[in-house]
Amino acid sequence: MALDLLMLESYSEPEVPRFRHYGWSVPSWTFGYSQKWGIKHDLICEMAAHIIRRPTGGGLVDHFHDWTYALVIPASNSLSAEKAVISYKIVHEALARALEANGCTVLLKSKDETSKDVINSSILDTPPPSDICFEHPEVYDVVQENGAKIAGAAQKRSREGLLFQGSINRQAVGEMDWDAFLQTFCKELGSALGTSPKDVHFPPFDSDKINELSQKFNSEDWNRQR
């Protein structure tokens, strides 16, 4: 979480979109910035897992078996100024194309009459009452043909740009060459953002700043602030 936020706020090339994929060293859950700690803690208190408040919105996400990524769209890119539902749709269209190219048949959950009240939920700040992420797909989530959710994301908009924190359910996808998927996904994102991807070393963020933010995300003050 700390490094995702640093990618948004302190990247050395602020005009450049940036992306990273990472895993989890211990069983973890994350929940949206505006959500109440007590409710989320009570849901998972018996699961012996870490629970962390994200800087982005959305609901409760199980990171036990997921493929996690962060994407920053800089303020200079026109997509960062679009409505949240539009940026959500475009990023997930790129994700769906990458999954399809690697043998996974998916589609985006369509916008329908029953979805009107959901557009401003997990995409933004206030998820529906039953908000464990992969249990209930929302509009423009990536889903299987039977409607089961495969991927979702949450967003944070600031003067620096737009931070996406996304999660793909590995178990729902099944067997896949994830290295090949990563390359395809980056190409699709590059196409959507009008740029070409290239591999770079992770930026040497100030170690004191990393420690400060890491302590913040691990602190009771941050995680129990609501």
Short description:
By secondary structure, this protein is of the alpha+beta class. It has one domain (2-196): Bira Bifunctional Protein, Domain 2 (BirA Bifunctional Protein, domain 2), CATH 3.30.930.10.
Describe the structure.
The chain is of the alpha+beta class and 226 residues long. It has one domain (2-196): 2-Layer Sandwich (BirA Bifunctional Protein, domain 2), CATH 3.30.930.10. The protein contains 7 helices and 9 strands, in the order H-E-E-H-E-E-E-H-E-E-E-E-H-H-H-H. The chain has helices spanning 2-9, 37-44, 84-101, 170-173, 178-193, 207-218, 220-223; strands at 18-22, 28-31, 50-53, 61-62, 66-74, 107-108, 142-143, 149-158, 161-169. It has a 6-stranded antiparallel β-sheet with strand order 1-5-9-8-7-6. The protein has a 3-stranded mixed β-sheet with strand order 3-2-4, with helices on one face. The chain is globular. Mean pLDDT is 86; it is low at 113-130.
Topology at a glance:
Blueprint: H1 2-9, E1 18-22, E2 28-31, H2 37-44, E3 50-53, E4 61-62, E5 66-74, H3 84-101, E6 107-108, E7 142-143, E8 149-158, E9 161-169, H4 170-173, H5 178-193, H6 207-218, H7 220-223
Parallel strand pairs: 2-3
Antiparallel strand pairs: 1-5, 2-4, 5-9, 6-7, 7-8, 8-9
